[in-house]
Backbone:
């Protein structure tokens, strides 16, 4: 469905108008392109460059080769951060998708008060963790939160000290992160469900498919685009999550919940080691690219 | 058939199943509402009740003093001004940024779907990948650029920054939406001699309601809640509300007035909550109309 | 004729008005003192300046002892729009000085005689290449213990004067069912305890050799292992909920009688005073046992950034002079809980613990036992400080034993130097 405008001089009388018509779309797009090239890719390149310098408190231009990367891989906190991202990222994405799908399917069943329930599921996305951080911290704190409340209801031996436990703290972050985004994922799946063609389903039912099989074989596969979009949004949030971690655990207990985003911030701005921060950022970006570029490529290729 | 549930016509659920469905939905409602409940309930208690009592219990002594305090008298810096003055700064920043970002995204989406040219897919890919850049990375170079452009510490500067990092997502939303838009209409209009902007104004825009809502909600939320850019690129007179809220909540000494903190947090979140509640139903509709299909 | 006169009058009035407006240049101050007490203390400065016709443009950015503020500062400096004065600590000030971003305060310093009244150990952080670059506001000290007197009296425990006595006291409190050591498990709090424990275990020479000179011999020594052993001992006396707790909540535990001791800097005193407690009657303040006679300090300062324009510089100098004036030093520090940055301020407005702090400070300054705090950026640069944090807090949370901790410490310092 491309609009091609003849570029030859076959119609000299209209050449001026054709050129204009050809140029306007590109002109309209060019500010955005220019902005992205400078302020995104230019900056990425700048960070990449910085990772080879000995920048400390501010950017410097003294090159030091691979030194920052060597140091980065010796730092204990970086290994912890990477492992945490893998654990957190995979749990977060999987749980959000499963939960989102489940709620979307349920909500799709002609529910009364659907609008209200949908708003309830969706609103957490509107709040930042500076807003909800304290509430979550309270809730997860054994002294005043869930553990205290459940115990006061009579169940004396209930323990929920995950947030204070080095091994389990990362899972509390998953809980809060899922809370924030699963409603949005649900909305995406709900929209996807509502876009599915009836005819295919009716045909399958006539053929005797059970409800479960109907979902499993027909509906869920048709949600593949929604899965892809959800994956993009979730991966993006997992990698960028900084406010969430600072609000809930501050990276603790100890360094148990350090993540690449908090690591990068800490090294660049707090520890005055911008070179190492830039190196960690470069690696973060390369990992993001490794996942996103193939996805984007496959998505865009399909469209043509 | 857009608008009605595909499964509605096909799948019927019996009484037992419906009870289970409602129960599950309700349990999750509790999960999502819990933090908000804790915040609201504790924002209406006097401080003595909070320090002594349970976090889930209703107030014995209902009071709206924390709200008044958070709005106009809480300590946010050297002065005790509450959050009120900072709201204006946030609004002055958010409204232009959202408007510009949406319009630009719409134009971009329009170009990328109806006015194809060689290389436009690559351009879109570039725009899309730009969504993923962590903001901490761009802080220092952006500060330099803002300084060079003379926009440092100003509201227009903040608007510009948010515009730059919002274009990727708004273009994504509009492009996916316009993709589903029948090109015959556009073609017909072109043959009739309509130009680029005429087609946009007369054909594309009027039909863009749902996706514009999605885009506006997304942008508004992200920009309103942003702290990093808001703190780093503002002056003493253009600090947005997130910075003030952070100051209110993160004070390191003295008695922590949790009730005021919660009241302040909810006040800060009210605009975004309002946008979600009011425009929420258009949200799903907007997502439905093509953007979800990748 | 009349019209002409009116016009001239109006024009003159307008001219006068604008001239007087242009005369009062404002100072923009970046800080993180956003809570009631600190803000009130800072307000004293603001009022003082407004009395001199200088406006105060407030730029508060709260969070984590200045982490967010320092980020904002970088952005401001990089964009060519630095604030006039920035609250800052220790080596950060020197780092910025090295970038050439700070102003020269020698004129004010000479006029006000700062060199004579500010302790030398503190001057090391307020001067760069011999030039004054910042105005110190206070001197906090980190090797303090705060104790609930009622609990001690009830259990018949005397104020500990040695490490062993301290441990015995902790055990006695624990045996009685109360929490022995109130503590918040955050990296900087663990490190604040570390300050006092290092002084107590190895004395000032060891402290200096290991953490200021970063001598590997001192770092990998038996004394260092013992330091970590003592940290582990303390770890055994905190309650199970300590992780992530804010420091003022730990102070509250001591105030309320839930816990007996807290090892914390003297900003904790403000909590006790605000709760209506009286030093010596309701609570005790004493040095970490074994570290008497030494003071590990950290000083809040307002680093003055390079600004252009005579009026701006004048306003900045006025602010610096006000900060260092004895009146302000007394008024501010009485509220803040710290000691003044100049040793010639009269101590009548201070409470018993404050007076003790000032006396200890003067004595330590004279005898060379005043030393920068590791935990608060006055012993090593930020990179090394945070590397030490990592090891101390990981060890405190039980991730490795003392011997390993020592090895980790050396490696961490080496990588991050």
Residues:
């Amino acid at each position: 469905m491309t609009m091609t405008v003849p570029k030859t001089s076959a119609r000299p009388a209209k050449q001026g108008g054709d050129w204009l018509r050809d140029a306007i779309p590109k002109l309209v797009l060019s500010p955005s392109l220019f902005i992205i090239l400078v302020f995104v890719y230019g900056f990425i390149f700048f960070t990449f460059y910085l990772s080879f310098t000995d920048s400390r408190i501010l950017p410097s231009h003294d090159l030091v080769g691979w030194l920052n990367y060597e140091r980065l891989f010796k730092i204990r906190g970086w290994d912890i951060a990477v492992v945490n991202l893998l654990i957190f990222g995979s749990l977060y994405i999987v749980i959000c998708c499963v939960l989102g799908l489940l709620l979307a399917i349920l909500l799709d069943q002609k529910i009364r008060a659907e609008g209200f329930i949908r708003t309830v599921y969706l609103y957490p996305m509107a709040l930042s963790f500076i807003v909800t951080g304290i509430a979550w911290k309270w809730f997860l704190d054994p002294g005043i939160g869930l553990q205290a409340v459940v115990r006061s209801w009579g169940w004396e031996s209930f323990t929920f000290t995950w947030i204070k436990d080095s091994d389990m703290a990362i899972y509390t972050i998953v809980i809060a992160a899922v809370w924030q985004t699963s409603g949005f994922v649900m909305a995406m799946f709900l929209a996807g469900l509502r876009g599915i063609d009836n005819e295919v389903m009716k045909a399958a039912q006539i053929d005797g498919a059970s409800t479960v099989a109907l979902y499993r074989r027909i509906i869920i596969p048709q949600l593949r685009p929604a899965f892809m979009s959800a994956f993009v949004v979730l991966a993006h949030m997992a990698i960028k999550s900084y406010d969430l971690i600072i609000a809930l655990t501050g990276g603790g207990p100890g360094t148990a919940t350090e993540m690449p985003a908090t690591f990068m911030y800490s090294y660049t701005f707090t520890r005055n080691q911008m070179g190492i921060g830039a190196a960690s950022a470069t690696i973060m970006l390369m990992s993001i690219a490794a996942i996103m570029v193939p996805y984007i490529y496959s998505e865009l290729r399909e469209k043509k | 058939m857009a608008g009605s549930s595909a499964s509605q016509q096909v799948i019927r659920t019996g009484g037992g199943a419906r009870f289970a469905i409602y129960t599950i939905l309700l349990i999750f409602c509790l999960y999502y509402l819990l933090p908000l409940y804790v915040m609201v309930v504790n924002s209406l208690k006097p401080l003595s009740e909070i320090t002594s009592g349970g976090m889930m219990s209703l107030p014995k002594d209902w009071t709206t003093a924390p709200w008044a305090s958070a709005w106009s008298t809480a300590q946010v810096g050297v002065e005790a001004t509450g959050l009120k003055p900072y709201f204006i700064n946030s609004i002055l920043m958010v409204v232009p940024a959202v408007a510009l970002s949406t319009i630009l995204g719409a134009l971009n989406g329009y170009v990328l779907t109806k006015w194809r040219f060689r290389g436009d897919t690559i351009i879109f890919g570039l725009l899309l990948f730009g969504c993923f850049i962590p903001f901490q990375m761009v802080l220092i170079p952006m500060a330099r650029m803002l300084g060079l452009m003379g926009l440092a510490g100003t509201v227009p500067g903040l608007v510009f920054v948010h515009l730059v990092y919002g274009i990727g997502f708004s273009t994504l939303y509009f492009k996916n939406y316009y993709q589903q838009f029948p090109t015959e209409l556009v073609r017909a209009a072109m043959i009739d001699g309509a130009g680029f902007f005429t087609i946009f104004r007369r054909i594309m825009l009027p039909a863009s309601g749902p996706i514009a809502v999605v885009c506006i909600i997304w942008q508004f939320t992200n920009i309103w809640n942003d702290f990093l850019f808001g703190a780093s690129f503002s002056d003493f007179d253009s600090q947005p509300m997130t910075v003030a809220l952070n100051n209110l909540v993160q004070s390191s000494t003295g008695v922590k007035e949790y009730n005021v903190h919660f009241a302040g947090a909810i006040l800060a979140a009210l605009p975004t909550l309002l946008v979600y509640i009011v425009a929420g139903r258009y949200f799903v509709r907007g997502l439905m109309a093509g953007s979800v299909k990748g | 004729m009349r019209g002409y006169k009116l016009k001239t009058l109006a024009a003159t009035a307008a001219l006068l008005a604008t001239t007087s407006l242009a005369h009062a240049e404002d100072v923009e101050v970046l800080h993180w003192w956003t809570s009631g007490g600190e803000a009130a203390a800072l307000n004293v400065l603001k009022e003082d300046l407004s009395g001199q016709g200088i406006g105060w443009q407030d730029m508060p950015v709260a969070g984590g002892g200045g982490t967010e503020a320092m980020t904002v500062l970088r952005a401001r400096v990089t964009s060519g729009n630095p604030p006039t004065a920035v609250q800052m600590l220790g080596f950060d000030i020197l780092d910025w000085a090295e970038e050439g971003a700070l102003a020269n305060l020698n004129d004010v310093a000479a006029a006000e005689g700062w060199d004579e009244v500010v302790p030398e150990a503190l001057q090391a952080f307020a001067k760069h290449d011999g030039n004054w670059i910042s105005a110190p506001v206070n001197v906090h000290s980190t090797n303090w213990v705060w104790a609930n007197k009622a609990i001690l009296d009830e259990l018949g425990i005397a104020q500990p004067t040695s490490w062993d006595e301290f441990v015995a006291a902790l055990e006695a409190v624990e045996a009685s069912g109360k929490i022995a050591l109130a503590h918040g498990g955050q990296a900087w709090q663990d490190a604040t305890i570390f300050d006092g424990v290092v002084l107590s275990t190895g004395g000032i020479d060891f402290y200096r050799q290991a953490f200021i000179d970063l001598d590997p011999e001192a770092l990998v020594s038996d004394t260092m292992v013992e330091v970590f052993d003592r940290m582990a001992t303390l770890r055994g006396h905190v309650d199970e909920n300590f992780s992530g707790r804010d420091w003022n909540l730990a102070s509250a535990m001591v105030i309320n009688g839930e816990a007996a001791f807290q090892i914390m800097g003297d900003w904790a005193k403000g909590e006790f005073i605000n709760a209506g407690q009286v030093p010596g009657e309701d609570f005790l303040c004493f040095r970490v046992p074994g570290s008497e006679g030494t003071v590990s300090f950290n000083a809040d300062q307002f680093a003055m950034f390079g600004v252009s324009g005579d009026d701006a510089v004048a306003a900045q100098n006025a602010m610096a002079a006000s900060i260092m004036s004895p009146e302000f030093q007394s008024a501010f520090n009485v509220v803040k809980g710290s000691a003044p940055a100049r040793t010639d301020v009269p101590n009548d407005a201070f409470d018993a613990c404050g007076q003790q702090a000032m006396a200890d400070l003067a004595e330590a300054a004279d005898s060379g036992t005043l030393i920068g705090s590791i935990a608060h950026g006055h012993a090593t640069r930020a990179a090394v400080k945070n590397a030490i944090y990592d090891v101390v807090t990981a060890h405190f949370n039980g991730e490795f034993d003392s011997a390993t901790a020592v090895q980790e410490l050396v490696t961490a310092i080496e990588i991050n130097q």
